[in-house]
């Protein structure tokens, strides 16, 4: 029995070195609109290809405000380098129409970009 | 001694920087660009916070709005600009709403570390409805 793949995926690229960012810790959070508090839904670490499976289940991915937090500072430290950003948090809104969301993070020590991909 | 010579000596002892008549520019600057339409991101609300190193709580330092060029002068004074963790918060969804569009990102927060407050730091934000990028510029 295979688990259905997560409707939310990410892909972290180290654009400084031109490689996937492997072994980068990340977490997914959801903003509870009733009390306006962030709840952590899952934690994970990117694999050799900079990806992290199983972020969220299809059923749990309803409309709302989510946050992906990437431990980029720790990642660069692990490579013996410093970085301008201690971490990167990307806050995004999911509507009823959003089925699959792919949110890559391209990052170097002094810049990063995110985009909604496919 | 002539008056002009006295003035010259006075200038050496009490150097008058004419520019101090205006406020010294902020050591931290930002620039918001709307990459979807190729214009500066003007009239975007933003705020600057600093984290207290012991309590880890964030304090609001400045609130502002970008001007017609997508910039926000006077973010922080040299005196206030100490080493530490800072956060720039941009009201991106409100910005897009004001021009009749939605944005995937309700807001954008960029957290960065200032190690040497003697340097100048430029934190740019390039933004569209579904993507953004930031970099340390000059």
UniProtKB/TrEMBL annotation, chain B:
<comment type="function">
    <text>Catalyzes the hydrolysis of 5-hydroxyisourate (HIU) to 2-oxo-4-hydroxy-4-carboxy-5-ureidoimidazoline (OHCU).</text>
</comment>
<keyword id="KW-0378">Hydrolase</keyword>
<dbReference type="InterPro" id="IPR000895">
    <property type="entry name" value="Transthyretin/HIU_hydrolase"/>
</dbReference>
<dbReference type="Pfam" id="PF00576">
    <property type="entry name" value="Transthyretin"/>
</dbReference>
<protein>
    <recommendedName>
        <fullName>5-hydroxyisourate hydrolase</fullName>
        <ecNumber>3.5.2.17</ecNumber>
    </recommendedName>
</protein>
<feature type="domain" description="Transthyretin/hydroxyisourate hydrolase">
    <location>
        <begin position="23"/>
        <end position="137"/>
    </location>
</feature>
<dbReference type="GO" id="GO:0033971">
    <property type="term" value="F:hydroxyisourate hydrolase activity"/>
</dbReference>
<keyword id="KW-0576">Peroxisome</keyword>
<comment type="subunit">
    <text>Homotetramer.</text>
</comment>
<dbReference type="GO" id="GO:0006144">
    <property type="term" value="P:purine nucleobase metabolic process"/>
</dbReference>
<comment type="pathway">
    <text>Purine metabolism; urate degradation; (S)-allantoin from urate: step 2/3.</text>
</comment>
<dbReference type="InterPro" id="IPR023416">
    <property type="entry name" value="Transthyretin/HIU_hydrolase_d"/>
</dbReference>
<dbReference type="GO" id="GO:0005777">
    <property type="term" value="C:peroxisome"/>
</dbReference>
<feature type="binding site">
    <location>
        <position position="31"/>
    </location>
    <ligand>
        <name>substrate</name>
    </ligand>
</feature>
<feature type="binding site">
    <location>
        <position position="71"/>
    </location>
    <ligand>
        <name>substrate</name>
    </ligand>
</feature>
<dbReference type="InterPro" id="IPR036817">
    <property type="entry name" value="Transthyretin/HIU_hydrolase_sf"/>
</dbReference>
<dbReference type="InterPro" id="IPR014306">
    <property type="entry name" value="Hydroxyisourate_hydrolase"/>
</dbReference>
<keyword id="KW-0659">Purine metabolism</keyword>
<comment type="similarity">
    <text>Belongs to the transthyretin family. 5-hydroxyisourate hydrolase subfamily.</text>
</comment>
<feature type="binding site">
    <location>
        <position position="135"/>
    </location>
    <ligand>
        <name>substrate</name>
    </ligand>
</feature>
């Amino acid at each position: 029995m295979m688990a259905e793949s997560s409707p939310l995926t990410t892909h972290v690229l180290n654009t400084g070195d031109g490689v996937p960012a492997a072994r980068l810790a990340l977490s997914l959070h959801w903003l509870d609109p009733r009390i306006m508090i962030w709840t952590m839904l899952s934690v994970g670490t990117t694999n050799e290809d900079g990806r992290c499976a199983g972020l969220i289940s299809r059923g749990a991915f309803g409309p709302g405000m989510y946050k992906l937090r990437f431990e980029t500072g720790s990642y660069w430290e692990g490579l013996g380098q410093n970085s301008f950003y201690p971490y990167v948090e990307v806050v995004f809104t999911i509507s009823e129409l959003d089925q699959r969301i792919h949110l890559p993070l391209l990052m170097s020590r002094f810049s990063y970009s995110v985009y909604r991909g496919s | 001694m002539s008056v002009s010579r006295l003035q010259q000596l006075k200038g050496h002892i009490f150097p008058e920087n004419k520019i101090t008549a205006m406020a010294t520019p902020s050591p931290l600057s930002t620039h918001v660009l709307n990459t979807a339409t190729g214009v500066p991101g003007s009239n975007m609300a933003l705020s600057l916070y600093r984290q207290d190193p012991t309590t880890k709580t964030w304090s609001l330092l400045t609130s502002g709005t970008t001007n017609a060029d997508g910039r926000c002068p006077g973010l922080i004074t040299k005196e206030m600009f100490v080493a530490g963790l800072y956060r720039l918060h941009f009201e991106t969804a409100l910005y897009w709403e004001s021009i009749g569009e939605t944005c995937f990102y309700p807001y954008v927060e960029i957290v960065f570390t200032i190690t040497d407050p003697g340097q100048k730091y430029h934190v740019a934000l390039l933004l569209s409805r579904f993507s953004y990028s930031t970099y340390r510029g000059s």
